[in-house]
Amino acid sequence: MDAATVGTKRILQDVEEAKSPHRILVRSLLNSRNKLRAKYRELRAECKRWRNQATAVERSRSTWRERHWPKRPAPRKTVLRGRPLNHNCNSAGNNQHSERWS
Fold first, then answer.
1. Which helix (H) or strand (E) is 84 found in, with range?
2. Does a structural domain hold residue 79?
3. How far is CA 28 from CA 2, 15, 39, 42, 94, in A?
4. Residues 6+ apart with CB under 8 A from 77
5. What is the pLDDT of residues 32-88, one digit of tens each?
6. How many domains does the chain have?
7. Cβ-contact 55, 48 below 8 angstroms
8. Is residue 86 part of a domain?
9. Neighbouring residues of 84: CB distance < 8 A, sequence distance ≥ 6
10. Which of 54, 63, 71, 94 could form a disulfide with 89 if both were Cys (CB 3.0 to 4.6 A apart)?
11. Quick one: which of 51, 9, 86, 44 has its CA closest to 1?
């Protein structure tokens, strides 16, 4: 066979030849959809398990904290004229910060 004598032959003569029948497409798409739904159903279940585990761990930790660390009263904040009091200097003898607060 000579390359010059053999012409290129189209594989498909018509576009309709390349189309699959609807009965085959429907079955294929339904199978694909069902597999995807099953995959994400499993992922949702796993996500829910992790959320429940995290909640259980947090509950366990808070219970342990309450049992082992007694509750302490919250520290009181002293406020002087709308500003927090500087506890490092006493008001009687040390006036080095008085300019900043006036």
1. strand 83-84
2. no
3. 43, 21, 17, 21, 86
4. 84
5. 999 999 999 999 999 999 999 999 999 999 999 888 887 766 677 766 666 665 555
6. 1
7. no
8. no
9. 77, 78
10. 94
11. 9
